[in-house]
Amino acid sequence: MSFFARNKFKIILGVITLFFVIIMALSSIPKNSSGFVGNFFGMLISPVQKCVNKVVSSTEDFMVFILNMKSYEKDNEKLKDEISSLYTEVRETEDLKKENETLRNMLELKSREVEYDLVASEIIARESDNWYCIFTLDKGTNQGLAKNDSVITPDGLVGHIYEVGKNWSKVITIVDSTSSVGAVLKRTGDTAIIEGSLDYQNENMCKLTYLSKNANITEGDYIETSGMGGIYPSGLYIGRVKEIIADPNGITQQALVETAVNFGDLRQVFVIRGEITE
Amino acid sequence: MKSFLHYLFFIILFILQTTLSKYISFFGVFPNLLLVYVICLCLIFSDVKSIILATVAGLALDLYGGIVIGFNALFYMYFSLATVYFGENFFRGRRAVTLLYTAISTFLYEIIYYVLFFAIWNRGGSFNNVTYILFMEILCNTIFVLPIYSLVRKTDVSGFRLSK
Question: Once rounded to an integer, what is the mean pLDDT over residues A68-97?
Fold first, then answer.
């Protein structure tokens, strides 16, 4: 009996192992501005991920539809009430905006309105374990996206791109335990850092740290990006203070922040493309 | 027919794990249904088909959102090989063994994952959090292994493995 016939199983196992090791090596190459190999691999994987995601999200939609069928009528009534109160708010905001513009013109101040170049993108894959909160988008450098571009939804800040290929990009969310964002308390202007934590990432919460001991923080305070750190532009809404927690060192203050974005239900996001024009 | 059923269960559990895990989470920790399924399959059938399905399951997890593509495929392949060996020599159809094997496997899987992706690459995570996630996931998986085990066992029409 030949060597190959005798060791068929071991040879097959060895070949498969080698194949996966090569794939692992290729996919772990840092892909800031992806090289040819990394990009090629990402381009091959991306359509498959898109397909799997379509099947998975359609099934989820169907199941959620069945589960929530009873509550639709109540939700409809609630939403109608919300719409009418929002109409009133919009009218008031329009008046305030006009007044603000007039006063700014009188004082000859530069407009603070920020215009973002947004790219709508779909989430095609996400980590399904208990350690990370990272996902893959269906857009990449072909659509003008780059590493460190901020990712948002109409609700608030999602995270930033940490790796990008031709037709895909990977996003690290603000609730991930490896993420930190420069933040500011909107009411008082005090600066702090928003950090993701393994403890809270599945509950859509982050930790607010390095806040001055003298800062006047209360539950319900709005938190925005401060613009410090070079990744996120200033003024992106992050969330609200849910609970003030004791800092073990007593030098600074800490708090739990409930993010405006529900990371479990995210499907579509917007990427702020290129440099910010303020 | 048996293989078709096994792949059908795999697809259902894959979709459950990737989309509806938030509905079946215990205090914010998700069970690893595919790992549990692979354990049951390899213990009950102990054949090459189970190893192939396990590898496909790992690859599917990698493609859906793996940080390093190929890690789960490789892990599931070697893990299923070990489980098949264990199934052939020590299992004998005892549920208590399945529970214990699931708990140990979950612990090993998560520890390897943690060491590879956090400790070596210095990506954070305090001891308390890691212990909490490990404990809760072991608890979740051992709870889910019983219904999944019964389901897989029903497909063992020949009763070949369990009568051994």
Answer: 86
